[in-house]
Structures are given as structure tokens and as C-alpha cells.
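Protocol step 4 of 5: obtain the predicted structure for the target chain.
Materials: sequence only (see below). No template structures provided, no constraints applied. The aim of this step is simply to have a reference model before the mutagenesis design in step 5. Sequence pasted as it appears in the construct record:
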Amino acid sequence: MDSMLEEYGKKRDFARTTEPAPEQPSPNQGPLTFVVQKHAARQLHYDFRLEVDGALKSWPIPKGPSLNRQDKRLAMMVEDHPLEYATFEGVIPKGEYGAGQVIVWDAGTYSPDEDGRLSWDDREEAGRRMQEGLSKGKLSFFLRGQKLKGSWTLVKTRRGENEWLLIKHKDRFADAERDILEEDASVLSGLTIEDLRAGRLPDRSRRGGARLKPDDIPEARRAPFPASLAPMLASLTDKPFSDPRWLFEPKLDGVRAIALIKDGHPKLLSRRGLDATAQYPALAQELARQPERELALDGEIVALDEEGRPSFQLLQQRLNLTREADIRSADARIPVLYYVFDLLYLNGYDLRPMHLLDRKSLLESALLPSERVRLLEGFTEEGEAAYTAAVAHGLEGVVAKRADSPYESGRRSRNWLKVKATLSDEFVVGGYTAGQGSRAHTFGALLLGYYDDARCLVYAGNVGSGFDDRSLADLRQLLDAIRSDECPFHERPSVKDATWVRPELVTEVKFAQITQDGRLRAPVFLRLRPDKPPSEARHSAVVPAPATAQSRPARPASLEKNLESVLEQLGNTAEKFTLKVQGQKIPLNNLNKEFWPAIDGHQALTKRDLLVYLAGVSPYLLPHLRDRPLSLTRYPDGIYGEHFTRSTGTTPCPRSWNRSASSPSTMRATRNT
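Step 4 output (C-alpha cells):
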């Protein structure tokens, strides 16, 4: 151990604390790592730690990091910590150095960036540059964490030997409006400091959380960089559901694309496996600036309408362009975004066998969001709420994904489920019927089919509604170009005046249901899908939503013990006493004062009765009230007396304010939205 790790060891009794003992570090690979631990000791602070020369250089920051460039956060340099400390979470016991609760608030990788030069791929050079910065008293570095991203500096002041300032540099990640400290959950366990205080401890067997490198995860396997990757497909389910084992992402109305990036050279592959890079030049330029040397991403290319919603109709205007001048013009008129939701390959590792949660964690650290390349954020557990919110914002619905599922390239899996407001799917056009009246020069209906497991095209019915004059004319022109004398369906459908076509066009159709014999009921044409290959138009039965699992974990024994203690103390018949809860002392008085008078044969209810009730419902009420401002309407003289309002975090309103004796009331909880 070097002298600084010796100092770390001398301050701790490892027979009492679960903090890691200093050991000889094993050699790391890949970029240098950093961690920020939120630490509720005598005073709440944030421990900012950078990996340098096999240890974590550490600076406690009392006010925490800020994205505002104007904020200069005091950072006091302390003893080095072992690298194993980067994943430490838990409670340091009383009497030990730094006693209190600790969570991993953020974690990721970093590189020195003095003069704009980065050293992601050279640990030795990066370490040397950091040592030079330490000796000069000025560090400049680029963070890629789940919360903190972009360029920062640590500058040593002249006021003290160990006094530094942490300052955000000017870049696209600086934000004077956003308070990053409001994001208070651990990136490792999802717990907060308040959870630890309430007795919930990190589950060390839990998968997911902050994963910094592929070799942190057993399922990641060494593999050459892929030349092509087929996307994983979702099955259609019948209704939204909530389940803690699933993640829920908004379903975007765009075009699926795999992005392959190697040494700054991006390639965008369509769902059909075609190279679409030239169609999106501005997007390709931004993908080329991703710092990782080898990267394979899965995501959706979308164009946004005036309301900020994904619009396939807008995007469709760009799909078939081939002339460079037309593409440049479309790039300016209809800019596109790439929403990334999965990471398939990273720096020599195939990540597809890994759990989705682990891939997501690596993605959050590896991807640098930009104006056009963005991370698609999802929801955990509350799938029904996510679905309702998505539909309310004009989206199609959500895609539910099992948190422990691998990535199944080229397969339509039940580990991913589409939950749509309207049932729709893709079908192959195998022919059309003659039109009558105003449609005499176009067609009457399209004959639709899907491929079965034997790769035979099975007839699924006709669609004759959903067309306007322009789509009728455009489709007739496309149909004329692929006319055929042979029926493409495995069994010739009994349809009068049918004209057959080669099965090359894919159309998206919404419908009420698919009957038992595989026919579409009440189908309506939505649009052509030139981005999707006919071979993927498979019969996908609407699968039932998974049975909802218990979404709330059982309360820890420590919480039950605290609740029993509170209820036992409230059994005290004294008019006043001091209630002790989790080390806090709360003086109570006037406990026998009647709040609700006796009425209709029911006994009067007192202040004590109210406290007993609130304690009893606290396991259900407190999670709902967490992080919500409260307004309490107080009735010191009973429900028919004068009352006043008090809000948490403020002083009580004077009794001359908001006085009323109009109607009985109890407690109100409000939330600012």
C-alpha cells in the first residue's frame, strides 16, 4: 500500500465497517473510472473520486457538483481510497470514521481533456497526464457518467493545502437551470439515502446498476467487430401491464436503425440490412464524434412534427431519396434524431448475451448524447402509467422489455412486447382487386398476406379503406411495376377480379382483431413500410400480457420494528411525552385534545388517535408523499374551530391568515406539477 492508502486503512476498523480493506489493486483495462458517492455523515456531502495510478483520488464536495458554469464548488482533497471503494454502498456504523449512509450517486469513465486532447484508449498516457495536472494544481477532464457528462476542472486554491474548486466547463452538457442533485437515487442499487435511513440496504446480488466495463459482466464475450447485425423484434400484446421485472419505453413512430461505429467511421443499417448512412448525413456526422472506438447501437430514427411528436409521415419524405442534392435539402428541411435504446457491441465485446439492465447501464456511460443523438429514457415497474402517458402525448404506446433478457438478433421475441393504443402490424401485398366508380382507374382493395413458418405466403384478407386519392394513385403506379401472372399466395384466395403482384411491398394496417382462421377484421390501411423487408411480415398472434407480479417488495424487518416501537410509545396515556423514532426525538403534547367530537354513538377521536392512525398507514402513505411538498391545514381547536395552513419547509402562516371555520377537513397533500 502507498502512504495514502495506509492513511485510509488506519482510519477504519474493518472488523466493524463493511468498507473494503486496502489491497494490492489488480491491473485495470480500458478508460480510467470515476465515482461520486453521496455520503450522509455529520454533514451531507458528495465524495468525488477519480482513478489515478491504482487508487481513487478523493475530494468531498459539501454542496455537490453543479452543471452551472458559474458555480465554484469547494472540494477538499482527502486520503486516497482503494479502487474497490467505487462500488461501496451501505451504512458506516457509529463510532467509525465517516459514520453514516453512503450510496453510489454516479459512476462512469473519464479522460483528461486539457487542450481538447482525450486519452480514452491509453490508460498509461491518461494516468501520466493526470499526475502532471495534480502536481500543477489544475486538472481538466471529461466525464462520461450516468448523471455527470462533459468537461470539468478541479483547480487548487491558495487558501489551503488541500482546498480545490470543482467547476463545470462550457459545453453542451452545461445547464444553469437543471439541478442535477435532484436526481438522488443510486446508479448502482436505485436506493436513496432516505432508503438506507429507513432500513433498506443494497441487495448485493441484484443485477444491473453502474457497470463501467464489459468485463465487469460474465455474459459479455470477446468477438470481432460485426459487419452487420439484425435487430431484435417485439411481439404484440393485448393490454398494458405493470411489473418490476420489466422496463417500459415509449414506442416511437420512426425507422429502426442499427448504428455501427468503428474508429470514427459510422454506418447506419436499415431493418432490411441496407446501408442507409448516405440518407442521413448530419446524423452520421454526429455519430462519428462518439468517443468509443467500437460501438454498435440499436435505436429509432425519427422526424418530429411542430408539436415535438415523432411523425412517420414527415420521415417518409426522406426514405426513398438517392440524389445527393435531394438528401442535403431534406436534411435541412426535415432534420432527424436518433433515439438510442440498446448497446450491442463495445470495444471488442459482444454484449447481446448480457441482461438488458446491464446493457442499459453500459449504454448510459458509453453514449454521449448530442442534439441529434439521444438516449431513449424509459420507466421501471409502472407500465400502465407509462402507457397512459405515452398515448396522452400522441405516441403509439410503449414497448415492454424484460430486464433480464438477452438481445435476440433477428427474432421476434416475447421478451419484448409492443403495447399499442391501436392494433396494427405489417403485411405483404400479394395483389389487388379492380376498382369501381371513382376508383375505376386505381384499385378497390389490396390483397394481404403474411409468411408462415414454412416460408409460405398465407392470405390474411383485403384492405380497402384508409386511402386518399394520392395514395391510391401512388400505390397503383407501384403495383403496375410488379404485376405478375402467378398468384404469390400458397393457397389461391377466392377473390373476384384479382390482379397478382410480386410480394415486394410491405404495408402497415390497423385492425380490430385477427380471427381464428387468420383473417383481419375491420382492417384500415395506414402506410407503406419500405424500411421493412417482406420476409419479416410474419403471423404474430397477439400474446396475452404477463401476469402482473407483486411490484412492491416486502417491508424490511427494521421498518416493521420501527413501526412497532412507535405504536407502543403512542400507547402511553400521558398528556405529553417525547416520541423517539430512528434516533430522532419528537416532543408531543395535548395528546388527549379532541379533534373529532363524539357523534352518532361513536366516541370522540383525539390527537393521539390521529397519530396512531398516521403511524399505521405510514408504510403506504410515506412512499406516496416522498419528495412532495405538503400543505397541512391545522385545526388546533377541533374541526369546528379556527384553522390555518402550514407548508413543509416554511414557517406557519399567522393565525390572521387563511382563517376559516367553514367546513371540517383533515390533512391535504398537494404536488406541484
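Step 4 remarks: The mean pLDDT is 87. The chain is about 20% helix and 30% strand.
Proceed to step 5.
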